[in-house]
Structure formats: C-alpha cells, structure tokens
Design brief:
The chain is an all-alpha fold. The chain folds into 2 domains: 23-287, MetI-like (MetI-like fold); 301-337. It contains 16 helices and no strands. The chain crosses the membrane at residues 55-73, 80-99, 105-128, 149-176, 260-277.
C-alpha cells in the first residue's frame, strides 16, 4: 500500500508526482504496439546498409587501400595519402579479422554521416536564415548533445528493434547537432559586403547561396562534418549493445570476457579509422588559397592523369601563361631596381 505523504513546504518534492515515468512507459507501449508498421522501412534501410557492407567486404584489402589512398591524395594532398596508406596497413596488421570488422564499422559510420548531412545541412541553412527557427532548435540541439545515449536507446529499440537501423538512428541523434550548428555559423559569418556585391550584380538568392555563401562557409561546414564523423565513431561501442556489428562489437565482447588484448585491438582499429576519416575530411575543407588557387581536378591523381594526357604541349602553354601573368604584374608594379639602374 502506497504511503500517503502530506505536503511539506520545506520539502515539497517528495509529495508531488507528475507521472512523467508513467507517461514515458506509455510511449514505450505505443512503440511496441506500432513496431510492425515500421518494419518495411527498417528492412529497406537495413538492406542498403548490408549492401554497402557487402561491397566493402568484396573489394580486396589492397585494392581498398589503394582506392582510399587515391581519394585522400585527391582531396587532401599527397602527404595525407601516404598517412592513409600507413594507417590502413597498420589496421590490417592488428588482427586477421580486424580489416573485415573495420569495413563493417566504416559502412555503418558512412551511412550515419550521410543521413546526418541530408538532415543537418538543410536545417543548418534554414537556421542561419531564420532567427525564429534558431530559437526553436537551440534547446532541441542542446538536449541532443547532453542527454546520455542510453536514455534514448531504449525507446529506439522498442520502436525499431535491434540491428543496424537502430544503431544508425542512435548515432544520428548523437552526432547531428554539431553539423547543424556549424553550418548555420559558417553561413552567418559570411561577409555581408560580399553578399551585397553579388546581389548588386543581379545574382538570385539561389545563386548567392550556392556560389557565394556555401563556398565561403565550406571550411566551417566541413569542421561540422568532421565533428559528426568523430562523434559517429565514438558511438560504435554503444551501438554494439543493440547488435550492431563491427569493431565496437568486438570491444564490447572483450569487455564481457575481460579480454584486454581484443579490447585494445578493437580500440586501436577505431582510432585508426578516426585518423583516416579526420585527415580526409580536413583536406576537403582546404580553401582555394591553401590549394594554390587551383581547381580540384588540377591536383592529385586526376591532375597527374590530365597532364599526362595533354602532353608537353600543355606544359608549354602553362609556362607561357605564367610568363604572361608575370609580365602583366611587372607592368602594373613598374620596373624593378636593376632596370632603373640601367636606365639611369
């Protein structure tokens, strides 16, 4: 029999029950009753994730390392490409099963980051343009960033069940806020004079967004993508509690068996994946000045192939173009000191 507690003005909270726990149980019961309606969508999303994993598993490790290294070289430079090769080779040497588990984890993480970008980029743009939406989203994002993952793990499992889809939902909830915040911040930090100049030249709002604001905000947006990737990787161990495979599952099993060796192997695999994805995502955020004001296709393996296809004639044209630009610059700045001395 429940104890009848009278209201105490000095300690009123023990006598007040708002029934929040019962309300939460009602949500759990509703999720359990409506689970069947979500299963078709769950199966479709799970098939996509499994398909990505199967593709990664079907590619031989050496070929996969070569593909990722070339991608890193193209996006972030030759030095990052070398770092990626060394890191991935070290990952494969950790354990005979480490590479297969890492590809499964990579498929889960990339799927989660893709969902975060599909949701986060438009929301970030809208938040930058609307003060009201920013005010509404701020407490929601604060809650998503601070609430422990285990709190929303239970209702997600009750609604969707265990598996890859539940892991992606939990990861998206945890990793989405930085992308929305930094996308909005990057667009808000674009110089208003640049936007006004584009508008004065007749640019439409769509052109201003795609050709002015987004390119200038790209470094900040990519910082948000980088943070989302890191947070998604940090969730792989927690997601393994709801039957998500990969390196996180090995860490969880090692914890249950007190197997320090396997836990270290799984942890190091996650760290190496984080280093690889971090370096590549930072390379995408490079500005035009950092790239030497070159287009992306003029550097990396694509640039090497294009220069090889054009042959020595293209190199001569590039040299002539550089000489002409240097001549124009000298005409603007005037003759140098040596020429002045000869003329006098």
């Amino acid at each position: 029999m429940a104890e009848d507690k009278s209201l105490n003005l000095l300690d009123p909270f023990t006598a007040i029950d708002l029934g929040i726990a019962d309300w939460a149980d009602g949500i759990k019961d509703w999720a359990s009753a409506n689970r069947d309606t979500i299963q078709p969508a769950k199966r479709a999303i799970n098939d996509i994730i499994v398909g990505i994993d199967d593709i990664f598993q079907a590619i031989p490790p050496v070929v996969m390392i070569l593909i990722i290294a070339l991608l890193a070289w193209q996006l972030a430079g030759r030095r990052v490409g070398v770092i990626v090769v060394v890191a991935l080779v070290a990952l494969g040497l950790l354990d005979p099963r480490a590479w297969s588990l890492a590809m499964t984890t990579l498929a889960i993480v990339l799927s989660s980051v893709f969902v975060c970008m599909v949701i986060g980029l438009p929301l970030g743009i809208l938040t930058a343009k609307s003060e009201r939406l920013q005010t509404l989203l701020r407490p929601v994002l604060d809650t998503m960033q601070t609430i422990p993952a285990f709190v929303y793990l239970v209702p997600v499992v009750m609604l969707v069940g265990i598996g890859n889809v539940s892991g992606i939902i939990v990861t998206v909830i945890f990793a989405l806020p930085p992308l929305i915040r930094l996308t909005a911040l990057g667009i808000q930090q674009v110089d208003g004079n640049v936007v006004e100049a584009a508008r004065a030249f007749g640019a439409s709002p769509r052109q201003i967004m795609l050709k002015v604001e987004l390119p200038l905000a790209l470094p900040t947006i990519m910082a948000g993508v980088n943070q989302t990737i890191m947070l998604a990787l940090s969730m792989v161990v927690i997601a393994s509690m709801i039957a998500v495979k990969g390196l996180g599952n090995e860490v969880l099993r090692a914890m249950g068996r007190l197997d320090a060796g396997m836990a270290i192997v799984g942890g190091l695999g996650i760290v190496i994946l984080a280093v690889v994805l971090d370096r590549i995502s930072q390379g995408v955020a490079q500005t035009g000045r950092e790239r030497g004001h070159r287009h992306w296709w003029e550097a990396g393996p694509v640039g090497v192939v294009l220069r090889a296809m054009r042959g020595p004639k293209a190199a001569t044209q590039i040299a002539a173009r550089s000489s002409a630009q240097a001549g124009k610059l000298q005409d603007i700045t005037g003759p140098d000191k040596n020429e002045k001395g000869v003329n006098t």
